[in-house]
């Protein structure tokens, strides 16, 4: 199950700050975006920038996946993330991630969530 490989790599990033496993999952021509990064970042360099910015935004973070659908070269992951922002403010937000695969690599990553759930707490 490729989705589980992604979930495990994200856990390594969230818990230990280890960029290696999650960046290694991305194809050379990968596209990554979310509401805070609407213009896709591209390639492995883009994956490094995307995931480093994600991890640096939080003092601590943990994502729990409630529902995972995987079919062919696509997966949808429904999740809740809890933790603390780098500022120390508590955080909990829900979202969905869409993954498209090219073989064993992520070709397209897109996360959907209400950015106010994160950005309103930055100013808190």
Q: How do the strands and helices of this protein lay out in sequence?
A:
Blueprint: H1 2-16, H2 20-24, E1 26-34, E2 37-42, H3 43-56, E3 58-71, E4 74-85, E5 90-102, E6 105-113, H4 116-122
Parallel strand pairs: 1-6
Antiparallel strand pairs: 1-2, 3-4, 4-5, 5-6
Protein described:
There is one protein chain. By secondary structure, the chain is α+β, with helices and mostly antiparallel strands. It has a single domain (2-122), classed as Nuclear Transport Factor 2, Chain: A, CATH 3.10.450. Helices cover 33% and strands 51% of the residues. Strands 2-1-6-5-4-3 form a six-stranded mixed sheet.
Structure characteristics:
single chain, 124 residues, alpha+beta, Nuclear Transport Factor 2, Chain: A, 4 helices, 6 strands, 33% helix
Domains (count): 1
Unreliable sequence segments: none
DSSP strand tally: 6
Specify the helix fraction band: 25-40%
Q: What kind of sheet is the major sheet?
A: 6 strands, mixed
Structural class: alpha+beta
Q: For the record, what CATH class applies?
A: Alpha Beta
Q: Which sequence of strands runs across the widest sheet? A: 2-1-6-5-4-3
User: What is the end-to-end distance?
Assistant: 39 Å
Tally of alpha and pi helices: 4
Q: Report the principal-axis shape.
A: globular
State the CATH architecture: Roll
Brief description of this entry?
With 124 residues, this protein is α+β, with helices and mostly antiparallel strands. It has helices at residues 2-16, 20-24, 43-56, 116-122; strands spanning 26-34, 37-42, 58-71, 74-85, 90-102, 105-113. It has a single domain (2-122), classed as Nuclear Transport Factor 2, Chain: A (Roll), CATH 3.10.450.
